[in-house]
């Protein structure tokens, strides 16, 4: 017998499960041990050892290793051991950096792991899908990825899209009855929901019958997982830069070697010098430090409740020029409360706040308990799924907040679910944001059937044929009155939900298409959903940062406008556009005017895609939020797709690059700020590393031109590049944001890394660093070969100190004096440890012969410090 051939009850029996209570925690533990987790073998991560040896794969490191072997063969043991030690030290630094980066990226993966709603010990809970076991009872709703293979127990218009498994992209309607045939392929097993397929409509529950590699898709899963991380555009760009620098390095090396040999220096010495010079030119640490900076940024974003799903988003965030945000939940609290009810031409005020069901109904200051009102509230509950409960002295809801508000309102009148248990829900047409309404067919205790539709009033007023429970014909005059009532509520920023009904004679079995026809309009609910306070400030901050905020909502135009005004989204001349206006607009017309549009109301998810495309067409970098199944195309098309961690569906999350753990608009701003900070930090260390490299090359070139002996010995160059440069660069990557970071215009996405004066800065500072080093050398050398080691030590120390002072200039694009030099403790630590290492190399006796150094006295230090401060003091206050 196959699972689809037996009934749901039989499935429960065979899996030792209970559809009403689920499994017990103890049972789950045993089954997890027996069957393993609900996942399949993924490509294994890189082992620590492989990561360490990976450090030696770098081209330059290989060249160095060859040089070590050569010097060893030639009997220069001290040199070869020293080079080897430096290379190993460098590899260790690289290893720890990369390991941290890997760790933070795999933590991200955990945060992004799919979740499932499961019934255990009689309670519904959200758990990681990997912890599902056979027998678990799981619920599904539109937008979910099915978390395991399920034999369905109940369905409400449930449809799934199974293309990953069957190749068929049209959704399949699911059933619960057992199927007879014994030769059915997956596409015909209508009572099974397959792991990885997508719930496109409706809802349902099912019992897990297979997990991990025991699912239909698990068998072919290895083909589907894509675990490779793609490089970000910046990483790619820097890699390209690296390649150009390699060519320059090789040319320079060849030049130095040839020139040196021509002047009669030993070939071996010149080869090692050439290799060191090549190492000096190539910023080998750069790509790794970029990855580290990105992953550190990702960690900081997690703390601010933004989860990055694609690393490239970190970069793109800094360029965002427009944020298109949903209203409900992102800009508002998503804590809805019914404040007004409009019924039979009368308006009732509802007291009470939040989901606390204490309060009452008042008309003209008199409490009202009319039966018509009771009946209206009952309709609201019957057509809602949400549950109200109290936890830790707080009233909360489980389900859709709009529906929660209706359930709470009814509770205020003493109507709760228990009292409605004699009503049977026979059928449901689920809510979707395109139709903006939902309908249930209910059997009342007296055996009659009644369809209750709730939804956007403008949709329902147009669809209704009658008015009131006694079915008066709905005349134009009545419609106008209803629209007026809606407008009045909406102008107070209330969200409006209308309720219509259609009654059917006893014994009559209506078809689905009859439920929303010939309806009678009953009344209106006006719900308050207060704007988030922090959203308003974030919107103002974004405006200062040159980023426009657009509100996109399915809500009524007046409600949307009122909320947009409260949030300072809408400038005086800003336009509010409705979905139906968009339908009459060509793409060209939309593009021509889109810069003046700030609020889009009553839109469908399809409109969102057009809005994104129009904005992109006129040159914007668009961040777009979304949570529903149908939002995925717009999220995907935008430059930074953003989904909601709490209310978002799996589909929306998968399409997005950024997930907001708290669904909050202010988090988008925080992420943008972080994105900008990371980019500016990357600019900082690129500038630091490259200026240092330019300085080092120039020292060698100057010496060649001036026919001086080499001012730096190879081992010193290696030391500076591989050991003392790295730590300050990483510390720059962890620098805090400059105050200006959210006061500047967004960065152009195609802007190169050297843009806005960075190239000039690198070259000018590099020239100065090189010049002071060669000057220090010449002052000490004075043409006397006896003084060579002394002069070299001075040059080496000047170079290191000039870089360590210059690093503080790199912290700001404005001026070295713009920031508190002690503001970055990491940098202070890095600089201090570099100085300690430098002192060790100069003063520790056994190290002196290795590094060709000798003791320096106070007078030397005065000269060194004076010279090494020159580049920063001279240029530190310049913007270019
Ligand atoms: P957003 O601002 O995120 O687009 P929204 O809630 O305003 O969210 P939709 O969810 O598309 O947008 O809702 C559109 C309209 O449908 C609402 O204004 C409301 O009138 C109606 N509506 C919303 N939720 C329900 C529901 N659960 N049942 C019936 N009608 C609903």
From TrEMBL:
Keyword tags: ATP-binding, Cell membrane, Ion transport, Magnesium, Membrane, Nucleotide-binding, Phosphoprotein, Translocase, Transmembrane, Transmembrane helix, Transport
SMART domains per the UniProt record, alphabetical: Cation_ATPase_N
Family: Belongs to the cation transport ATPase (P-type) (TC 3.A.3) family. Type IIA subfamily.
Membrane topology: Multi-pass membrane protein
Stretches with biased composition (Basic and acidic residues): 18-27
InterPro entries, alphabetized: ATPase_P-typ_cation-transptr_C, ATPase_P-typ_cation-transptr_N, ATPase_P-typ_cyto_dom_N, ATPase_P-typ_P_site, ATPase_P-typ_TM_dom_sf, ATPase_P-typ_transduc_dom_A_sf, ATPase_P-type_domA, Cation_transp_ATPase_P-type
Localization per Swiss-Prot or TrEMBL: Cell membrane
NCBIfam families on file: ATPase_P-type
Segments for region (Disordered): 1-27
Catalytic activity line of the entry: Ca(2+)(in) + ATP + H2O = Ca(2+)(out) + ADP + phosphate + H(+)
Main location: membrane
Residue ranges the record marks as coiled coil: none
A GO term, aspect molecular function: ATP hydrolysis activity
Annotated protein name in UniProt: Ca2+-transporting ATPase
GO process terms (BP): intracellular potassium ion homeostasis; intracellular sodium ion homeostasis; potassium ion import across plasma membrane; proton transmembrane transport; sodium ion export across plasma membrane
Residues spanning the membrane: 49-71, 77-96, 244-264, 270-296, 685-707, 713-734, 762-783, 789-810, 822-844, 856-877
């Amino acid at each position: 017998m196959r699972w689809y051939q037996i009934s749901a009850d039989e499935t429960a029996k065979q899996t030792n499960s209970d559809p009403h209570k689920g499994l017990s925690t103890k049972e789950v533990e045993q089954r997890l041990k027996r069957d393993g987790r609900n996942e399949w073998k993924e490509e294994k991560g890189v082992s620590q050892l492989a990561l360490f040896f990976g450090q030696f794969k770098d081209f330059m490191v290989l060249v160095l290793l060859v040089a070590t072997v050569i010097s060893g063969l030639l009997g220069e043991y001290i040199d070869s051991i020293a080079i080897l030690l430096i290379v190993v030290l460098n590899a260790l630094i690289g290893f720890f950096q990369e390991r941290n980066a890997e760790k933070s990226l795999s933590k991200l993966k955990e945060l992004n792991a799919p979740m499932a709603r499961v019934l255990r010990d009689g309670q519904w809970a959200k758990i990681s899908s990997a912890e599902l076991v056979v027998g678990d009872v799981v619920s599904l709703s539109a937008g979910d990825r099915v978390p395991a293979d399920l034999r369905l127990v109940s369905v409400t218009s449930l449809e799934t899209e199974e293309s990953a498994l069957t190749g068929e992209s049209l959704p399949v309607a699911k059933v619960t009855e057992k199927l007879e045939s014994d030769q059915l392929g997956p596409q015909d097993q209508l009572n099974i929901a397959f792991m990885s397929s997508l719930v496109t409509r409706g809802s349902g529950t099912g019992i897990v019958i297979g997990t991990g590699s025991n699912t239909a898709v698990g068998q072919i899963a290895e083909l589907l997982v894509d675990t490779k991380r793609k490089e970000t555009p910046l990483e790619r760009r820097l890699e390209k830069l690296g390649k150009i620098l390699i060519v320059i390095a090789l040319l320079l090396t060849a030049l130095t070697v040839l020139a040196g040999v021509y002047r009669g220096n030993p070939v071996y010495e010149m080869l090692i010098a050439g290799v060191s010079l090549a190492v000096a030119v190539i910023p080998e640490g750069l790509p790794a430090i970029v990855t580290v900076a990105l992953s550190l940024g990702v960690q900081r974003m997690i703390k601010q409740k933004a989860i990055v799903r694609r690393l490239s988003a970190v970069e793109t965030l800094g360029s965002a020029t427009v944020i298109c945000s949903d209203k409900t939940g992102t800009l508002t609290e998503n804590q809805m409360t019914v404040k007004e009810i409009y019924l039979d031409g009368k308006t009732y005020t509802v007291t009470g706040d939040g989901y606390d069901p204490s309060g009452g109904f008042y008309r003209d200051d008199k409490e009202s308990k009319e039966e018509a009102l009771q009946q209206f509230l009952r309709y609201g509950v019957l057509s809602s799924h949400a549950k109200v409960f109290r936890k830790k002295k707080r009233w909360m809801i489980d389900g859709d907040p709009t529906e929660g508000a209706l359930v709470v309102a009814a509770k205020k009148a003493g109507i709760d679910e228990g009292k409605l248990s004699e009503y049977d829900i026979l059928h449901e047409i689920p809510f979707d944001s395109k139709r903006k309404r939902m309908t249930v067919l209910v059997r009342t205790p007296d055996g009659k059937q009644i369809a209750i539709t709730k939804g956007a009033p403008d949709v329902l007023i147009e669809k209704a044929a009658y008015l009131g429970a006694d079915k008066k014909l709905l005349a134009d005059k009545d419609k106008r009155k209803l629209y007026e009532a809606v407008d009045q509520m909406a102008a107070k920023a209330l969200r409006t939900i209308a309720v219509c009904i259609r009654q059917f004679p006893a014994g009559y079995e209506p078809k689905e298409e009859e439920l929303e026809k010939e309806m009678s309009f009953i009344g209106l609910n006006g719900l308050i959903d207060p704007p988030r306070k922090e959203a308003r400030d974030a919107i103002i901050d974004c405006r200062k940062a040159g980023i426009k905020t657009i509100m996109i909502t399915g809500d009524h135009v007046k409600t949307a406008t009122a909320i947009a005004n409260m949030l300072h989204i809408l400038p005086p001349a800003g336009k509010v556009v409705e979905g139906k206006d968009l339908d009459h607009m060509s793409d060209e017309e939309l593009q021509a005017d889109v810069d003046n549009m700030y609020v889009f109301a009553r839109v469908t998810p399809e409109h969102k895609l057009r809005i994104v495309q129009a904005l992109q067409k006129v040159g914007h970098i668009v961040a777009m939020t979304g949570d529903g199944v149908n939002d995925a195309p717009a999220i995907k098309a935008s430059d930074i797709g953003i989904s909601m961690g709490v209310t978002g569906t799996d589909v929306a999350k998968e399409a997005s690059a950024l997930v907001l753990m708290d669904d909050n608009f202010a988090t988008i701003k925080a992420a943008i700020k972080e994105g900008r900070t990371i980019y500016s930090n990357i600019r900082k260390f690129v500038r630091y590393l490259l200026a240092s490299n330019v300085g080092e090359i120039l020292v060698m070139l100057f010496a060649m031109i001036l026919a001086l002996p080499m001012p730096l010995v190879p081992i010193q160059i290696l030391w500076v590049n591989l050991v003392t440069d790295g730590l300050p660069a990483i510390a720059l990557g962890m620098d805090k944001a400059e105050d200006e970071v959210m006061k500047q215009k967004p960065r152009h996405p195609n802007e190169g890394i050297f843009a806005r004066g960075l190239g000039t800065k690198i070259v000018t500072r590099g020239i100065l660093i090189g010049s002071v080093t060669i000057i220090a050398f010449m002052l000490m050398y004075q043409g006397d070969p006896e003084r060579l080691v002394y002069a070299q030590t001075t040059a080496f120390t000047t170079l290191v100190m000039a870089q360590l002072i210059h690093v503080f200039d790199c912290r700001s694009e404005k001026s070295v004096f713009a920031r508190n030099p002690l503001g970055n403790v990491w940098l202070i630590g890095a600089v201090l440890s570099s100085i300690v290492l430098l002192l060790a190399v100069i003063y520790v006796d056994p190290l002196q012969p290795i590094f060709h150094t000798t003791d320096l006295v106070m007078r030397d230090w005065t000269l060194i410090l004076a010279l090494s401060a020159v580049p920063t003091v001279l240029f530190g206050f310049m913007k270019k």
